[in-house]
Amino acid sequence: MSHLLVIALMWLVTYPARLLGLSLGGLRLPPFWLAFLRFVPVSVFAALIVPDVLGSPEWPRRLPAALVGALLLWRTRHLALGILGGFAAYWLVRVAGL
């Protein structure tokens, strides 16, 4: 299969879905759906982080770092601070030899 054919097929699959999402921009959603959609970013972030933390052989080091990062993110609502705090906690646990 050629590279151009793969790219064309990927475009054919993704473009209509994106166009549909963009065309719904003026739609007014009921309050239930607005409240529901507020949790989507948190759910996606958790779905990306949890398997990497708990599925790793070094999960005892990663779990405290993930908890520190989540706590900072929850308290400050600042993504960069949560990520940097999680990294700092991971390296502190690693340097401490735990």
Describe the structure.
The protein has 98 residues and is an all-alpha fold. It has helices at 3-23, 31-37, 40-54, 59-76, 79-95. Helix 4 (59-76) runs antiparallel to helix 5. The radius of gyration is 20 Å and the shape is flat.
Characteristic key phrases:
mainly alpha
In short:
By secondary structure, the protein is mostly helical.
The stretches of 5 or more residues where confidence is low (pLDDT under 50) are none
Radius of gyration: 20 Å
Number of strands: 0
Q: Shape from CA axes?
A: flat
Class from secondary-structure proportions: mainly alpha
**Amino- and carboxy-terminal Cα gap:** 49 Å
**What is the helix content?**
over 70%
The overall pLDDT average reads 89
Q: If helices are DSSP runs of H or I spanning 4 or more residues, what is the number of helices?
A: 5
Largest sheet: none
Order of helices and strands: HHHHH
Q: Indicate the proportion of strand residues.
A: under 5%
What is this structure's SSE topology?
Layout: H1 3-23, H2 31-37, H3 40-54, H4 59-76, H5 79-95
Helix pairs in contact: 4-5
